[in-house]
Write a structure and sequence with these properties.
The complex is a heterodimer of chains A (154) and B (106). Chain A has 2 helices and 9 strands. Chain A is an alpha+beta fold and 154 residues long. In chain A, strands 1, 3, 5, 6, 8 and 9 form a 6-stranded mixed β-sheet that branches. In chain A, strands 2-4-7 form a 3-stranded antiparallel β-sheet, with no helix packed on it. In chain A, strand 5 and strand 6 form a beta hairpin. Chain B is mostly beta strands and 106 residues long. Chain B has one domain: Immunoglobulins (Immunoglobulin-like). Chain B has a 5-stranded mixed β-sheet, with no helix packed on it. In chain B, a hairpin with a 3-residue loop joins strand 7 and strand 8. Chain B is elongated. The N and C termini of chain B lie far apart (33 Å). The relative contact order of chain B is 0.32. The model of chain B has no long low-confidence stretch (mean pLDDT 93). The chains are: A alpha+beta (154), B mainly beta (106). The interface between A and B is medium-sized, with 36 and 31 residues. Strand 6 of chain A pairs antiparallel with strand 5 of chain B, so a sheet runs across the interface.
Chain lengths: 154, 106
């Protein structure tokens, strides 16, 4: 290969590199709405949250953040006197902290709910259950996401 | 009309806990995602799901953009008496759909 060809090749490579550079325009940062502690406070209205009675079932390593199965189990007799009123799932790093809030009652029989959610990146998830006696119980998990939601077209 | 799937037993014994699985076809567009033209795709979400057992609210959920497309929700209910379970989804742009399933309790 002559030196001239090498220069041309180098030029094309450089210009190609520049073109890629211009394509990678930084998107405007989306303002995340509030942080996790304030989202927890908004749900509990400032009441203390105890750990336990709630269990999150989710894969610790998520390959596709567009649809992540999650189950929340709450240990409760689900009687008229002692039952779960609400279960909420919150996240740490999606554009919005809320994921889903379920309202149950003694008619549920068992406080198990499942859904499929989106995860923007590796982050912490928190599930909080509100009991009929006014207490709040929670569980949290850390999940690693390899393909993020909200960026790729699903 | 979006396609909705409800999976639950047709019959149950009185006092038995029945697991109900629901799925509805819906894009759950977050409003954070850019389309092919680079513009943000407008938000289009299902905001609320509820289940009434013979008119009594037994389960409801508030959905946010983090719920995946084609919302899938499962929950349980106590089989009390033979009756109709009414499932309804409400969302942006006047989206509203209701499905009825009869549960026979023996």
């Amino acid at each position: 290969m002559s030196s001239l060809q090498m220069i041309i090749k180098r030029r094309t490579l450089l210009s190609a590199g520049a073109a890629i550079g211009t394509l990678l325009v930084v998107r405007p940062a989306r303002a995340a709405e509030g942080d996790l502690p304030s989202a927890i406070k908004a749900f509990t209205s400032g009441a203390p949250v105890q750990r336990g009675r709630v269990k999150i079932d989710i894969a610790p390593l998520v390959e596709n953040g567009n649809t992540v199965p999650i189950t929340v189990h709450v240990t409760s007799p689900m009687s008229a006197a002692d039952h779960v009123l609400a279960v909420t799932v919150l996240n740490e790093k999606n554009p919005q902290r809320d994921v889903i809030t379920c309202r149950l009652g003694p008619r549920a029989g068992r406080a198990d709910v499942s859904t499929r959610i989106r995860l923007a990146t590796s982050q912490q998830l928190v599930a909080i259950a509100q009991m009929s006696d006014g207490s709040f119980w929670s569980d949290s998990v850390d999940v690693i996401v390899t393909l993020a939601a909200c960026i790729e077209t699903p | 009309m979006a396609r909705a799937l409800i999976t639950m037993p047709k019959t149950a014994k009185r006092g038995e806990i029945v697991e109900i699985r629901t799925l509805i076809a819906h894009p759950m567009e977050t409003g954070y995602r850019a389309g092919d033209d680079g513009q943000l795709v407008p938000r289009n979400l299902i905001r609320r799901f509820s289940c009434r057992y013979e008119g009594e609210l037994v389960f409801s959920a508030e959905l946010f953009p983090a719920v995946a497309a084609n919302p899938y929700i499962t929950f349980c209910t106590l089989a009390t008496a033979t009756g109709t379970l009414q499932f309804s989804w409400e969302g942006d742009g006047g989206f509203s759909q209701t499905e009825n399933v009869v549960l026979t309790v023996t």
